[in-house]
Amino acid sequence: MVDTAPAGAASGAMLPSVDVVPAVWGRVASIVVDRGEGSWLITTSGERYLDYSSGIGVANTGHAHPRVAAAVAAQAVKLLHGQQNIVYHEPGLRLHHRLQGLLPGGPWGAFLSNSGAEAVEAAVKLARVATKRPVIIAFRGGFHGRTAQTMALTSAKNIYRGDFEPLPGSVYFADYPYCYRAPGSAHDPAACSAGCASCDGCTCDWEGRLEELFHTLVYPEHVAAFIVEPVLGEGGYVVPPIGFLPRLREIADRHGILLIADEVQTGFGRTGRFFAVEHSGVEPDILTFAKGVASGLPLSGIIAKQEILRHWRPSAHGGTYGGNVVACAAANATIDVITDEGLVANAAARGTQLLDGLRGLKARHRSIGDARGLGLMVALEFVKPNEGDGRVPNTDVTKRVVAEALERRLIVLTAGSSVQVMRIIPPLVTTPDEVDLALGILAESLEAAGA
Fold it and tell me: What is the pTM of this model?
């Protein structure tokens, strides 16, 4: 489906063909968008799409929120670029100060960059400098970016790194507790109160496998940091047991290892808390953020304990555009909107509504193996119920359901190492009526896809 109507083009001329965009951008939709309003995208021909992708978890305040747009416009006529090595600017100073107070504990400091990958690069560099250790341990199924260093940390899917070896070394992978795909049988993560390994009947022995890693491949005293997503993103929206992060924190402390929480996708209210680590009460040493911080403008960074940040010498790290003044103005407005409009609480409430509805659909469709999520980070995992143990990934059905939803003007995305997961990422401003509309469309889409 391609919409190339000229409406919205200032000159009145026909838009160029979509072929001008290189095919390396894998696509879910081929619509041409003119504008956005809240949870909706409107094409150049006036068709309205309920955007439950949020630009991959970016538009937390919805599309073109008036307060964010006004802040961007007001700043743009004053200053577009004030480089961090050269000047200070008011939006940046205010944002640095606010970021220090967003997490419990601390005291915290912040460093600003442009993209999620840059934030992860900064976190890894800082961890290695602070500990004087070389090794980083990431978790299977994680996604941390597309630069060389962040590809080396990524194992969500082979397409992200398979063509680009060799990659930076001193990276090892540990198991992430994926309760639906546990050896033996699936089980509810909520039943794993102490982190999986110590739970009666649980077979997600992530801790045992981590100890095996320490005994066979790398000394723990050589490890600078664990980097972990509190909820796996590209790996399939996997919510771990509530005890996973606290136990990982204990292991990190025992060995002098830093804990990096990658909250690029989970941050800024997405999971029903401002940051997902708050669900388990864990205090990381470094937290990465991006996506939802500035409502669509390129901005990212890290929040780190101040004693760790002090290990960076002046000019040891930086970037030309990090902490751009317009992006900082957007971020300040974004935080205002999230706070003033109660979007964290709305994410929790609408997430419960959405997940309850999806679990109802699961009861009627055998190809849905699991319905899971946290806040407005929700997913369905599709399987072939008559093959193997009933958990064989079903890529074809996943793609068909996503395509059928798009035909009905609902945008959702895929995820998972076998593209067996449909992920649903509404803006945090979404309403009860919009959630009900999306559930109705998904019910129709599942039927049309033969799921």
Answer: 0.95
